[in-house]
Each structure stands twice: as C-alpha cells, then as structure tokens.
Amino acid sequence: MSDSNEETAEFIQLLTESQRMLFQYIHSLIPHRNDADEVLQETNLVLWREYHQFQQGTNFRAWACTVALNQVRAFTSKRRAKRPFFDTDTMMLISERQQKKSAYFESRLDALERCVKKLPQRKRMFVEKRYRIGFTIETIAKEMGSSVDAAYKMLRRIRDDLHTCVDRTLSQEGLGK
Fold first, then answer.
1. Which among 100, 101, 70, 62 has a CA at the least distance from the CA of 88?
2. Domain boundaries, the chain
3. Where is the RNA polymerase sigma factor 70 region 4 type domain (predicted)?
C-alpha cells in the first residue's frame, strides 16, 4: 500500500470517528436538526475535498470544527432571511465553549481508555463485555458464575475505580476540572 493510500485510509478513519462529535458541534450552533444534517454533509464534502491540507499528527477534530464553523457561517448567511439564527458573536462564543468542552471530554475519554488498560484482566473483560460488546449484566453474571447482584456490585466498584483513575490522571496532566 502506498503512503497516499495509507494517508487516505487514516483520513477516512478520522473523519468517520468524528461524525458524532461534528454533528453535535454543528447542532449546538444550528438549532434545527435537518439544517445541522445539511451543514454536516457540506462539512464532510469540504473536509474530503481539502483533506490534503490536513497535516498528519495534528488535531483532526480541531481542524474539522474550524471547517464546520465556516460551513455554519456560510449556511446561516444564506438562510438568515428564512429563519432567525444566532448573530456572529453569539455563534463564536458557543463555538469556543463547544470546542473547549469537546477537548475536555476527549481528554477524559483518552484517560478512561488508559485506565481501562490498567485494570486487572478479569475486570477489564467485564468492562469490555458490558460496554464494547453490549452484554447484559445478567449474561455476564451467568458467564462469571455469580449472582446478578454480585455482578452489579462489581460493575459499580469498577466504575468507581475508573472514575477515580480518570480524575487522578487528568489532575496529574494538569487537565482536571
């Protein structure tokens, strides 16, 4: 596979993984879901057309949000006569807050993934089965040979441990609340 194909594949993966975040970001700026969907599609087209401008190793989500914000501005300026939208200052304020919130949640998610990897294998498998595979607590309890109540208690302890680990990790990195 050539570098170009690898870069394209990586770009597609980044774009795909960012769809939910991009939609939420756009929807925070444009209150109507159908309009937000339309802007997301336009954003995706621009991102695809301009993907060669994205520098590997930089923050894809920040770049994508910048493109999305430009698409929101273009959309609202075309549609302003049909529907009231936020003025530019309000839109910029919402955009800044949303990007900070997104960065905060992204750092929490990264910390959570690292904390899950630190769990003992049995607890890590419990988390994998429950949250990645989607098994019910009842199914997991049966597999473990324990009661449903014991499985719920174990899950609660694991979640508490993960919460503490995430907070400690972010605090050590200077990214706490």
1. 70
2. 1-85, 105-177
3. 110-161
What pTM did the predictor assign? 0.48
Angle between helices 19-29 and 3-17 (to 10 degrees): 50
Angle at 135 between CA 130 and CA 136, to 5 degrees: 95
Token look-up 């994205």 returns 54
d(CA 25, CA 94): 9
Architecture of domain 105-177: Orthogonal Bundle (1.10)
What is the arithmetic mean of pLDDT over 165-170? 90
Which is nearest to 21 in space by CA: 45, 40, 48?
40
Instruction: Report pLDDT digits (tens) over 20-48.
Output: 989 988 988 888 889 999 999 999 999 99
| CA distance readout (Å), 145 to 44, 125, 151, 155 | 48, 15, 10, 15
The pLDDT tens digits for 46-64 are 999 998 888 877 888 889 9
Contacts of 167 (CB under 8 A, 6+ apart): 176
Q: Tell me which residue of 59, 77, 73 sits closest to 26, measured CA to CA.
A: 73
Which CATH code for domain 1-85? Answer: 1.10.1740.10
**Nearest residue to 165 via CA among 157, 153, 133:** 157
The whole-number pLDDT of residue 115 equals 92
The band of 173, judged by pLDDT with boundaries at 50, 70 and 90, is confident
